[in-house]
Amino acid sequence: MHVLAERIGRHSVVIPVINEGQRIRDQLKRLQELELGIDVVVADGGSTDGSNGPDLLRGLGVRALLVKLERRQALGPTVDRLRIRLARGVRGCRDRRREW
User: Fold this and answer.
1) What is the pTM (predicted TM-score) of this model?
2) Does domain 2-94 sit in CATH 3.30.70?
3) Is the pLDDT score of 74 beyond 80?
């Protein structure tokens, strides 16, 4: 896991991605412009298009990047490990599958 910034909020949003390219950059920019005071975490499923570069994501207001390490590993367990690591002090977190 790459921690790109200090925690700013009590809530996080986890965004699972794989090879999202310009689409994820545009979405992260719009999210940053909203100034919601939430931590944005990108859970990358193994992108090869350069859209998961830590410097790029840091500039777009992303707090942390979690990258799937094993080729055959599903992204779900990766997000679950992220939830455990970031849960301390976070009031709630939501991904597209569930709220925890």
Assistant:
1) 0.73
2) no
3) no
